[in-house]
């Protein structure tokens, strides 16, 4: 499994698309956070990163699918998955190796944003006047959110040979999971279904973690979400003769 993980990670790191995607994510988040008047922290006047953590999930909807879209789609298109499947590896080992390689790249994209936190700490009056617990919870939530979107991206890549289609399907699934259930909850407001759709909403659990409270229910939700789509990926690749 480690050999496949290392192969997949180095393949991603050698891909120009990965660097372009991460670069665009950092550029857009930086511009929105510091330069655009409507979202700039300098214009807002408070030492907090709520603006970044509100915008990052929508950027992740495009960043993560761009990273995961080649996972299985490219292997199937080029016929190299046959060689990979012939090795003494289970389907789960292959899936998890590819998943964790994508997740590491998501982590690489998040690490440079820590400079935003450092900058806010230095700019705050008095210096360091920032809710560190909320920031920590938000970063953990972003990593879990990236993991959730990566699982949908891996699944989308396993059902098609076309990377563009895999990207589009992953973006759609990520959007529905993050915003779609919120919209349904508003439609069925004051009803039993409202609570059901809010529980299914990724956004609801991410916002809960962003308050700095690590609730085990949120952790269980994200892990269940990830396992659900990785399990669907197992069915997709296991039920097909390559």
In a few lines, what is going on in this structure?
The chain has 242 residues and is mostly helical. The protein has one domain (2-238).
Structural category is mainly alpha
Biggest sheet features:
none
Compute the number of strand runs: 0
| Binned strand content | under 5%
As residue ranges, the low-confidence spans are: none
Mean pLDDT: 84
Give the termini distance in whole angstroms: 20 Å
User: How large is the radius of gyration?
Assistant: 19 Å
Number of domains: 1
Number of DSSP helical runs: 13
Report the helical percentage.
over 70%
SSE order, one letter for each helix or strand:
HHHHHHHHHHHHH
Shape: globular
What is the assembly state of the chains in this entry? single chain
GO molecular function: ABC-type transporter activity
Transmembrane segments: 12-35, 55-73, 94-118, 138-157, 164-181, 219-237
Subcellular location: Cell membrane
Pfam families: ABC2_membrane_3
Keywords:
242 residues; mainly alpha
Describe the structure.
The protein has 242 residues and is an all-alpha fold. The chain has one domain. The chain is built from 13 helices and no strands. It has helices spanning 2-13, 16-34, 41-44, 50-68, 73-78, 81-85, 91-110, 114-123, 132-158, 163-187, 192-200, 202-210, 216-238. One of its GO terms (molecular function) is ABC-type transporter activity.
